[in-house]
Fold this sequence. Notes:
7 strands, 7 helices, single chain, alpha/beta, Rossmann fold
Amino acid sequence: MTGRLEGAAALVTGASSGNGRAIARRFAEEGAAVTVADIREDPRLGGDPTHELVEAAGGDAQFVECDVSDPDDIRAAVDATIDAYGSLDVMVNNAGVERQLPIGDVTEEDYAWLMDINLKGVYFGSQAAIDVMREQSEGGAIINMSSIAGIRGLENSSLYCTSKGGVTNLTRELAVEQGPHGIRVNALNPGFIETAMTVEDGDTADGILSQTPLGRAGQPEEVADAALFLASEESSFVTGHNLVMDGGFTA
Length: 251
């Protein structure tokens, strides 16, 4: 059976760990060649690098060091994808960070650090992908990693909510702007997903999980399945959508 992304080339930022790692591996299982773009090659929780796992399973992958706060790094990762695979069919702007502080404690340095990664990285990642995809006859698909924090407030998370709110609405705007060029732009809005980054904050996790109807945390593999839907032809008439996957938290 042919994979749902057979012959496609994908770039996933922040793909060494967590959701990005799961997305890269899932895409490769469905036939995509994958560029793993991250500031570090080794996963946060240890183990083999993502691209090595993909290759060991018979897939095609490469690692490219990339700091998404630097637009030149993002464009270099896009260029590396084109050089290796001949196209860029799916761009996943996944890299992100979190810092919880009451607004009165936020410094300008805190603001710049988080926004540069969470919002600037998505903005210029999308720009770099669009520049390539508009030249391709088949267009492409862009998937941005937003959050439930992009559609509602969370305590002591003004920085994170601001950045993810920007991603949420940027996704809508780019869908309108780029639809005529055959480029679909969607976002994922996960709730609490069990990754190395999120489990470090136990209090926040407990608060969200206590209000989650399904009564558990989500897993990166579940995020990857949703990303696969948005990347594949199964969502060919879906654009400008923010797909909430939060176990019912925002219901």
